[in-house]
Amino acid sequence: MKTFVGIDLGSTTTKAVLLDENCDVIGRGITNSRSNYATAARVASEEARIDGRFTLFRRALNAGGGKSGELDEFLDALNRSFRLVQFLEQIDDLEETCRGQVKGERFAKVESRVKDAIGEVFKLLREEAPSLYAPGAKRKSDFFRDIAGSRYHAHAEEVARAARLPYELLLNVYDKSIIDVENRPPSGGLSEKFRRALARVLAADSAVKTGSSDVPKTIESTLDIDLEETYLVGTGYGRVTLPFSKEHIRSEILCHGLGAHMMYPKTRTVLDIGGQDTKGIQVDAKGIVENFQMNDRCAAGCGRYLGYIADEMNMGLHELGPMAMKSDRPARINSTCTVFAGAELRDRLSLGEKREDILAGLHRAIILRAISIISRSGGVTDEFTFTGGVAKNEAAVRELRKLIKENYGDVTININPDSIYTGALGAAEFARRAHLGQAEGSEA
Amino acid sequence: MTTTFVTPKAAAAKQVVKDASMMKQKEMMAGHYDRLTSAPQTGEKIAATFVPGNLNELIMCFGLLNNLPEVNAIQNGLRRTSGAFVLEAEKIGHSEDVCTYVKSDIGMMAKGNIAPNGKKFPDPDVLLLSYTGCFTFMKWFELLREQYKCETIMLHTPYMGDGKITKNMTEYMVKQIKDEVIPKLERVSGVKFDIDRLREYLKKSVKAENDLVRVLQSAKNKPSPIDAYFGAIYYIGPIFGAFRGTDDAIEYYKFLLAEVEDRLAHGLGPVTPDGEMGKEKYRLVVEGPPNYTSFRQFWKMFYDEGAVVVASSYSKVGGVYDLGFRHDPDKPLETLAEYCLGVYTNRSLPMRIDMLANYINEYDADGLLINSIKSCNSFSAGQLLMMREVEKRTGKPAAFIESDLVDPRYFSAANIKNRLESYFQMIEQKRAGARSAA
User: Of A71, B14, B195, B426, which has fewest CB within 10 angstroms of its CB?
Assistant: First the structure.
């Protein structure tokens, strides 16, 4: 089948969306941008194809009369199993790469002991891997680097202590290896991994039920469907570093405008707060950009600002919003300078202000800046769609709702759970249109 | 010089002619800087003044040499020395947000006041400020007066707030020129004012002005043979600077016009620093000054995408000749007053809106692009409002980018490129939309 791929190469994450010919999203994929956009683009689109396979499985099994509860359960199990297979494969690669690093003067006297220790760490990693992907298990991140990194560090510390080896030696080996592993293209065919994942699921529960269909047969025939990459469009800050020709590149402002329109066709104003920029975009009834404004010269008040705050407070990025929500007296903060964020924060804390009040104030400051950008782009016209990583932050959303109401009255505010994919979605639709244009012999 | 000028017939002759105006301008500029820096030896006296409201013909009547601090700042921007000068000025105590022309100038003085030819600029003997629309000019000259302790003349130009020049306004200015400007210039120079000498210079000005207008209006053609923003920066050099009213300027514009008409005859687009521009895809009207510290990189962002600027407001800051104004030798003092009153920076917001909207229609442009200057409030205030109004009137999309004149810290290439590309694609998308609706 024909598929159209949109890739949004952001400063923090790279996103991919796969559309079919009917303009339906069949897959989404995301990965960290890892300063290597070529790999990030490849990984994100492979992730989207994996997700696309699951959509096809669901369609096929649904057609076979599967009940949605059972189907969900089965697909969830298959997904977890697939992730485990994928994880173990990368763990194998990481171990081999780590072993390769154990050489030279530094390891002269301890080479075999270090290799043994590495073997032990990886044995522990493999043993606990199934529990990471058990039903209901919470992972702080889905990126291999984050999961493998945090678990490696934990095990290496214990193993080093027991083996009386310097912990730094084991860390050094990991640090030198992870970038290589991360940047290596995923090996092996996807179909084979799906078969192995399915085998694991069937081994655990041979009585998998999804209606009348023969699950292994349905999965197998679905795997036979070729997901042809018919046309690809790249967008986002990394787009220029990719070997895409001009016809395959669109500005992220256009992609966000179109993506927001596809999610909510009545959208007229879009706000996107990403890692390093904030964009206010006005679109017409067809999703065509009429006007836009974005931050210039500095990333004050963008997603990265929250990242710094989280680091300063030694908290996870996703914990900031919930803490700010506890505040009923937000501090008044004017500066959204990312560089001064830490100083501002420490100053406030030293004055005895509560963490939740400071955080609530910081969220308000970001949104105030965003509102200024939106107003310069032409204000807010119903409906209003909020996208980007910051749209997932409930405290930011609360402030936004408040300020939109104060300034523009009752406006429908759309926030899609998949809003992080807005740019990639727009890009995929541009890809679909470009293909249609080619087919019809006109420019898209 | 005139002997080297050949009317082009064959393509082979084009190269020769293309170089003629550039060579001429180079020679003029180098000669001028040499004259300035050897003034202490030759005894020539110096008048410092600004581009908007530059009374070059009058200055020449007293045998004074014109030195323009803005042009020096631009030269330093293009030569990438302004960044260090700006820092120097900040070290002295000027804040980050002060006009960077001023800071580049102050910093240059602090660092020895070296001209582009490597020799020291002489101190000015008189500061002539024909205040036109920018209040910072006045403060700038106050700083220079403090430094040089020389004669300062302030010619007050009333702002065209109501969109027209009244008799009162002209009379008020002529009175100042008669009672203040001329007597002071006579005193400084020791030369008696001769109105017939002024008339002669003004006659020469008109010739150059006529040719300049024909050059600028050649952009109405498709493809445009010139870039009326980046290219025009060079074209306006002689007439906005120390050459209006001279034979050199007449000759320069004659060369330039012949070259442009030749390009037109051959259906060629503008010449860029990388050679011939590719296919003309977008025609833009640009409001606001360019960035000088990354001038070529900035221009490249346009011509790489096939975008050509067909009209700009910045090429009118030293005189809005294309709307009809010409220096008039028959009323020499009134014409100087009207010239100062009419420059772009002295025009009200509604006048600027009219001008930009008309440009879009007359030059059949795809839309308006504003380059807003971080350190120039005089230019930037009201620009967003102007943009909305022009959009509304023309129905063409507009975009807004931000940079600075000569402070390299305020040029974010990735950000500007991102916005420009978005804008070009937006135009493309609108066209596609219009096509499918048709």
Answer: B195
Q: Tell me, what DSSP letter sits at residue B114?
A: B
Overall average pLDDT of the A220-240 stretch: 89
Beta bridge partners of A271: A280, A386
CA distance A23 to A27: 12
* CB-based contact B419 A252, cutoff 8 Å: no
pLDDT, tens digit (0-9, with 9 covering 90-100), for B301-340: 999 999 999 999 999 999 999 999 999 999 999 999 999 9
Q: How many CB atoms lie within 10 A of CB A253?
A: 30
CB within 8 Å: A253 and B422: yes
Pick the closest to residue A408 from A271, A303, A278 (CA basis). Answer: A271
Asked if residue A396 and residue A299 are part of one domain, the reply reads yes
pLDDT top residue among B321 and B8: B321
Question: Rounded to the nearest 5°, which phi and psi values hold at B116?
Answer: -60, -20
A290 and A408 share one domain: yes
Q: What whole-number distance in Å separates Cα of residue A130 and Cα of residue A88? A: 9
Query: Cα–Cα distance between A272 and A34 in angstroms, integer?
Result: 22
Q: Where are the beta strands (DSSP E) in B132-242?
A: 151-156
Is residue A44, in this structure, part of any structural domain at all?
A: no
More confident residue, A159 or A35: A159
The pLDDT value given to residue A190: 86
Residue B152 pLDDT greater than 50, yes or no: yes
Range from B130-144, B313-327, B353-367, B381-395 carrying the lowest mean pLDDT: B130-144
List residues of chain A with CB under 8 Å from any CB of chain B. 237, 250-254, 277, 284, 286, 288-294, 296-297, 376, 378, 443-444
How many CB atoms lie under 10 A from the CB of residue A23?
Answer: 12
Contact check, Cβ <8 Å, B419/A294: yes
Task: Give the residue among B177, B241, B243, B237 at the shortest CA–CA distance from B205.
Answer: B243
- Do A35 and A9 meet the contact criterion of CB atoms below 8 Å apart? no
Residues A278 and A382 in one domain: yes
The residue among B46, B60, B70, B189 whose CA lies nearest residue B124 is B46
Set of chain A residues whose Cβ sits within 8 Å of the Cβ of B374: 297
Yes or no, beta carbons of B426 and A296 under 8 Å apart: no
**Do both A164 and A285 map to the same domain?**
no
Measured distance CA(A327)–CA(A345) in Å, rounded: 16
Show Cβ contacts of residue B377 under 8 Å, excluding neighbours closer than 6 positions: none
Q: What is the mean pLDDT of residues B20-36?
A: 95
Structure confidence by residue, pLDDT tens digits, A385-408: 999 888 989 999 999 999 999 999
Asked if B166 is an interface residue toward chain A (Cβ–Cβ < 8 A), one would say no
A289:B402 CB<8 A: no
Domain that includes residue A155, residue range: 82-183
* Separation between Cα atoms, residue A315 and residue A191, nearest integer Å: 39
A253 and B391 within 8 Å at the Cβ level: the answer is no
**Residue A48: phi, psi to the nearest 5?**
-65, -35
How does the average pLDDT of chain A come out, rounded? 88
Residue A277 has pLDDT above 70, yes or no: yes
Residues of A in contact with B422 (CB under 8 A): 251-254, 289, 292
CA–CA dist A274, A229 (Å, integer) = 27
Distance CA A426, CA B248 (A): 56
Mean pLDDT of B29-52: 96
Claim to verify: residue A277 and residue A403 sit in the same structural domain: yes
> What does the pLDDT look like over A92-107, one tens digit per residue?
999 999 999 998 888 8
B96 interface with A at CB cutoff 8 Å: no
Whole-angstrom Cα distance, residue B225 to residue B412? 29
